[in-house]
Amino acid sequence: MAREDSLYMARLAEETERYEDLVFFMKKVVEAGQELNDEERNLLSVGYKNIVGGFRTSWRSLALIEQRDLEAGSLRLDLLTNYRRRLELQLQATCDEVTQLVDKHLLPTATSTDCKAFYLKMKADYCRYMSEVAQDEKFRTVVETAHRAYEEAYALAEAELPECHPVRLGIALNYSVFYYEALIEPDKACDLARAAIDASSAVVHTLGEDQAKDTLAMMQLLQDNLELWTTETLEEGGPPEEAVEEQL
């Protein structure tokens, strides 16, 4: 199938919320070897984000049910545990697929700073998702890989992208979530989020209306997390609320 035909099918799949089909066709677009434009990049991201987002939500639900049934002494706990582990394998396989696409196709063809930073963040995000279900050596490996990719993306964005650039703010948002949830470093997470808010606050008034609106929305997500984490640090105890992250 020609690249343009695959892209057309991907657009149809996105409009009809057929995310597995969207990923299937966008992989063909990626493997054609050309650099993706903004629309193509976002189509790929939306497809994988929805698939893996479903896995993550289901896994969290199963983990809660498993804990409940364990406490109740359920006789079918082994069935539930096996089901959860099967879901983990599906999540990990999909995340591995994303990181391989980034390493083999997306980064090698990226020429602009925002594309390179976006793909590094993408790799880091999907390693972080794997860390949510990984244990022992696998956990350490994916956390280390995520940390390196976030650090590289953050350094690149900070050096070469404007303070209010959506990719730069998205990196700061998700990197701070990584510090809080995976590395368990709340002070570092808060510092990173606060720095991004302060930097963008200083220049947001210079932006056009549409760009300012997008920037303010991203700043609000950072602020929401900062307030959540500050409250949890002060109160301690009880199940933590889930932080918000960028959806692309």
TrEMBL record:
Gene3D superfamilies for the chain: 14-3-3 domain (1.20.190.20)
Annotated 14-3-3 domain residues: 3-243
Family the entry assigns: Belongs to the 14-3-3 family.
Superkingdom, natural source: Eukaryota
SMART domains in alphabetical order: 14_3_3
Pfam families named in the record: 14-3-3
Organism: Neospora caninum (strain Liverpool)
Matching InterPro entries: 14-3-3 (IPR000308), 14-3-3_CS (IPR023409), 14-3-3_dom_sf (IPR036815), 14-3-3_domain (IPR023410)
Record-given protein name: 14-3-3 protein, putative
Site description Interaction with phosphoserine on interacting protein, residues in chain: R56, R128
Signal peptide coordinates: none
